[in-house]
Amino acid sequence: MEYLEGKLKCGCYAKTTFNPANYVLELCPLHKAALEMYEALQVALDFFTQYDIQQKVISGISLQLNEALAEGK
């Protein structure tokens, strides 16, 4: 089985075949921290996107209730 492998100047190392199951990646501390920051930001983005959607739903329901109350008067 033929492997492709490489190492960057920073210390990151990758070794793989064309099968993704055989992929090995070792990150240097800086790139590992950057990956962790990216993952944390992705979680925050998902949370705030969901929060924004919920706020829009609540605003829509509130608007409908106000319109219904105005029609009832």
TrEMBL record:
Its protein name is Uncharacterized protein
